[in-house]
Write a structure and sequence with these properties.
This protein is an alpha+beta fold and 213 residues long. Strands 2, 5, 6, 7 and 8 form a five-stranded mixed beta sheet that branches. A four-stranded antiparallel beta sheet has the order 1-3-9-4, sandwiched between helices. Helix 1 packs across helix 6 and helix 4 packs parallel to helix 6. The termini are far apart.
Length: 213
């Protein structure tokens, strides 16, 4: 199995024919990924969830040609993000509502369907297995219909299952996944010292905006 010393290796493996945008994370931030058990993920602008399923090589229970209730974030932007490399979601038996509050307090974001599939592609490229097999994961940055939330996961046959659910629902087999967006648009001498958000640290550094105390 490849290691994480070159996180771009997995991105290039997943998107061999894509013109990949410049990564806004610093070399020091990328060097920490093994120690924090995290992955670097790339999501090209405009790429559809159906195309991402084909890239990953998975079947889905979603009729992509007729699905109109699933909403994704930042569709027009190339996205680099960092997320947990864990094979299963965290915050099990926490509702989507509570998970959103936890992540917001730490300067973190949730996934949507496209982000989740991009994560799945990188996870599979590195570990050779699908994540969240027989678990459900809330997609906290996406929307389902007007006030619902999407839950996704892979069944025992490796099929991606998606359902719309209630934000206050919780179960011992349902959790969430965070993403870290870079605290900068590009790496420059002025931006490289900005701190990224980190999971599990209750601190102001890493938030996208804040007030002087």
């Amino acid at each position: 199995m490849a290691d994480n010393n070159n996180p771009f290796e997995f991105v290039q493996k997943v998107y061999p024919e894509v013109d990949i945008a410049t990564c806004p994370f610093t070399d020091d931030e990328l060097a920490e990924l093994d120690g924090t058990n995290e992955l670097l993920v790339y999501l090209p602008a405009h790429i559809s969830a159906a195309d991402l399923c084909r890239i990953v090589g998975v079947r889905a229970n979603i009729d992509f040609d007729n699905e109109t209730l699933v909403k994704n974030a930042m569709v027009k932007e190339n996205q680099w993000f960092i997320t947990s490399a864990s094979h299963s979601p965290e915050l099990l038996y926490f509702s989507a509502q509570r998970a959103v509050r936890i992540y917001e307090d730490e300067g973190l974001h949730g996934m949507d369907l496209r982000r989740y599939l991009a994560f799945t592609a990188i996870h599979s490229a590195r570990f050779g297995v699908l994540p969240d097999q027989c678990y459900w994961t809330f997609l906290l940055s996406g929307k389902y219909d007007r006030s619902g939330v999407s839950v996704v996961g892979f069944d025992a046959e490796g099929v991606l299952n998606h359902h719309g659910w209630m934000k206050n629902f919780k179960a011992k087999f349902t959790g969430s996944r965070y993403i870290v967006l870079a605290p900068r648009i590009e790496v420059t001498p002025q931006t490289e010292l900005l701190e990224r958000a980190r999971r599990g640290l209750d601190r102001r550094a890493g938030r996208e905006s804040d007030l002087d105390s």
